[in-house]
Write a structure and sequence with these properties.
Strand content: 5-15%
Low-confidence stretches: 87-94, 121-129, 154-160
Order of helices and strands: EEHHHHEHEHEHEHEHEEHHEEHHEHHH
Shape: globular
Radius of gyration: 30 Å
Largest sheet: 7 strands, mixed
Oligomer: single chain
Mean pLDDT: 83
Distance between the termini: 46 Å
Helix content: 25-40%
Number of strands: 12
Structural class: alpha/beta
CATH class of one domain: Alpha Beta
Number of helices: 16
CATH architecture of one domain: 3-Layer(aba) Sandwich
Length: 490
């Protein structure tokens, strides 16, 4: 009889399998184990295996060990305290006969007391209810109260616990947006093929099943087995960018998105959220998306929104589409440029609110070549600025149109010195000296993540370079904007 993968329940071969070192269950090595490419290579080394593998359930159990140890210690302390407590406490002002023994709890008494405490912890306490009488026993009063509480005609809050899947999950922007929204839900699985992005996702969401998988290999059967009812995704934007070739459906990078649309009729989905670059709304890919949503009875709404509308000092206009089975609690229209309920833009906070302390200026300063040849195209932000340009994945490598730079200097002083620089020879020593005095630097990756509304808990693995961080941030989403869109599902 063939072995089956414990995750996807499909047939598994010995070469493509890895067994949990704790429970011995088998998993597909490359798809279902959650291992990245480097970890798989280490496990495939000849000789003794150099890396232990634990399935998600066993790994979760191992992570609970410190908590269990602490609970055992607390229980042990509680038992010790009970052993020292007399069964009967006599008030100090009443003399105790000399022949009265001081009785201590034995072990049986201790466990009875602990059980009673646990039972009391589960009691329901109801205040301001009069004592029962002979004509209406307590039990009847309790039944009456329970009847009132369980009245189905009374208005009840609707709590929607959604099970989501992230496609093109990147560094986890959609996952963070779900958490920020406050809408109950769990990300059951995330799929991404970029190893750098996956290392960051795993660093921040170690409990989430992360599949290093080409989305074109995704099947309806696999999605349905995960039992998800919502998909959050940000497909590749290069086929639609203003600086690209704009080949639209002819671009091979749309193949995975088209594949997902072919799966849609076979999926048990209730909600979909899609993010892409501004310009997608005029593409043939968009037309295919909308037609597929209509064919599968989805109600949908399209938006073009920017973080600057939500009080964030950053311009990052993006296309969004939310779709669900059933109606939204607002009237759907053609493309909207404002969220329902947001009548006007919120005032943005100042750039200084996202600046890191003690930044090593030398690591982020602009070099002589940029200062001498590209100074005129720089977008400069100051402490009190309430705006910044969109940061792209080319930030730090190219200058024009990739994102803003920052200085601690006074804005009036900087502008006055730039006027002087325009009248000087850019290859002169005095020019370079004055340009360097502007103290211009790139934003750090942490500062950009704050502009994109990532939580303070978000972190990068220590082994990544600034270039790698800038690239994945440039491909990510604004958490605040997406969190507001997720709220519209409820």
């Amino acid at each position: 009889m063939s072995d089956l993968c414990s995750e996807c329940k499909l047939v598994i071969t010995a070469l493509d399998s890895v067994s949990c070192d704790s429970c011995s269950r088998l998993f597909h090595k490359k798809v279902c184990s959650g291992l990245n490419a480097s970890e798989i290579k280490v496990m495939e080394l000849k000789g003794a295996r150099q890396l232990n593998f634990f399935c998600p359930e066993c790994l979760s159990g191992l992570k609970m060990v410190p908590t269990l140890i602490k609970a055992v210690e607390e229980l042990r302390q509680e038992i010790d305290d009970l052993k020292k407590t007399p069964v009967m406490q006599t008030p100090p002002n009443i003399p105790v006969p000399s022949n009265t023994p001081v009785l201590n709890y034995n072990e049986a008494d201790i466990f009875v007391e602990l059980q009673e405490r646990q039972n009391r912890a589960n009691n329901l306490m109801i205040f301001n209810v009069p004592e029962g009488n002979d004509s209406e026993p307590d039990s009847d009063q309790v039944k009456k109260i329970i009847s009132i509480l369980s009245d189905t005609n009374s208005p009840q809050p609707r709590v929607l616990q959604t099970l989501r899947m992230e496609l093109y999950s990147g560094i986890g922007g959609m996952h963070m947006a779900l958490q920020e929204s406050g809408v109950p839900g769990t990300v059951k699985a995330a799929i991404e093929i970029n190893p750098t992005a996956n290392s960051i996702y795993k660093h921040n969401f170690p409990e989430t099943k992360l599949l290093n998988l080409n989305i074109q290999g995704l099947t309806a059967d696999l999605v349905n087995k995960l039992n998800v009812d919502t998909i959050l995704m940000s497909p590749p934007c290069q086929p639609f960018t203003r600086n690209g070739k704009q080949q639209d459906l002819k671009d091979a990078r749309t193949d995975s998105f088209q594949h997902i649309l072919t799966l849609l009729p076979h999926l048990s989905l209730k909600q979909i959220l899609i993010e892409n670059v501004k310009g997608f709304e005029g593409s043939k890919m968009r037309d295919l998306l909308v037609q597929t949503l209509k064919d599968n009875s989805f109600c949908y709404q399209e938006f073009v929104l920017s973080p600057s509308q939500f009080g964030v000092p950053n311009s990052r206009s993006r296309y969004y589409c939310i779709a669900k089975k059933g109606k939204f609690n607002f009237d759907t229209q053609k493309l909207l440029e404002r969220l329902p309920g947001f009548e006007s833009d919120l005032e943005s906070f100042e750039i200084q609110d996202i600046i890191e302390d003690d930044v090593n200026f030398a690591d982020y300063s602009l070099n002589e070549k940029i200062l001498s040849k590209r100074l005129g195209v720089l977008d400069i932000c100051y402490k009190t600025s309430k705006r910044s340009c969109c940061f792209t994945k080319a930030y730090g490598r190219f200058i024009e149109g990739t994102g803003s730079v920052y200085t601690e200097n006074n804005e009036e002083e900087v502008l006055e010195n730039i006027k002087k620089l325009h009248q000087m020879q850019s290859d002169s020593e005095k020019y370079l000296e004055l340009a360097e005095s502007l103290n211009l630097r790139f934003f750090t990756a942490k500062e950009i993540s704050r502009l994109m509304c990532f939580p303070e808990t978000f972190a990068f693995p220590d082994n990544l370079t600034n270039r790698q961080k800038y690239m994945v941030l440039g491909n990510s989403i604004n958490v605040k904007v997406v969190s507001e869109l997720i709220k519209l599902f409820n």
